[in-house]
Amino acid sequence: MAENIFLFVPNLIGYGRIILALLSFYYMPTDHIIAATMYILSGFLDAFDGHAARMFNQGTKFGAMLDQLTDRCGTMCLLVTLSHFYPQYMFLFQLSMAIDISCHWLHLHTTLMAGRSSHKGQEANENPILRVYYSSRPVLFVMCAGNELFYSSLYLLHFTEGPVIAGVGLWRALSYGLLPVGVLKTILALMQGYYAALGLGAIDVHERQEAAQKNK
């Protein structure tokens, strides 16, 4: 009897992440406490689906895609809200969305076209900076969590300064302090897109050479 991969533990966690994300989107305009709690919890569970996949040997291509789409769509929807709350920075938020979606999609597509098993593997990341980014779990966690916390802090700052520490509201301090992480995350995404484009171009050249050889 074939396994039902859709009911694998990491995928069930993934469905839970989607439900939490949808709840956060619904409450984002009106209730920052519920929205932020649901959004952060959805992101927090991201660490558990990968752990469950390794623990139960239930890693699947569907699960990897589900995880990737949940991350990208979650950040994108938060940025849509931020564009509404901070219209003067709308272009920057739009730019961030475009870079995040396009570069991750290109990197993932090139990885599949090249016949590689994962876009996080060393063979899929020839650049040493990207190799460290994907191979070091602490680095990946700090960058991803820091980026999400940066945007979340901007979201919360629209409603409240938060607890005041040394005369500065917590959400304002975090949004300023984590700005470099957000910028660096965007730069890394651009690097992803650049090297993925080179890789996809190399595949095109190779396929055209093979086709030319067959037509001789």
Spell out the key features of this protein:
2 domains, mainly alpha, 216 residues
Report on this model:
The protein is an all-alpha fold. The protein has two domains: 71 residues; 131 residues, no CATH class. The chain is 76% helix and 2% strand. It has a two-stranded antiparallel sheet with strand order 1-2. Strand 1 and strand 2 form a beta hairpin. The longest helix is centred in the last third of the chain and has 37 residues. It is globular, with a radius of gyration of 20 Å. The relative contact order is 0.10. The mean pLDDT is 92.
What is the terminal separation in angstroms? 48 Å
Helix content: over 70%
Assign an overall shape. Answer: globular
Low-confidence stretches: none
Summarize the structure.
The protein has two domains: 1-71; 86-216, no CATH class. It has helices at residues 9-27, 32-44, 46-55, 61-85, 90-113, 128-135, 137-157, 170-177, 179-215, and strands at 164-165, 168-169. It is mostly helical.
SSE arrangement:
Layout lengths: L8 H19 L4 H13 L1 H10 L5 H25 L4 H24 L14 H8 L1 H21 L6 E2 L2 E2 H8 L1 H37 L1
Antiparallel strand pairs: 1-2
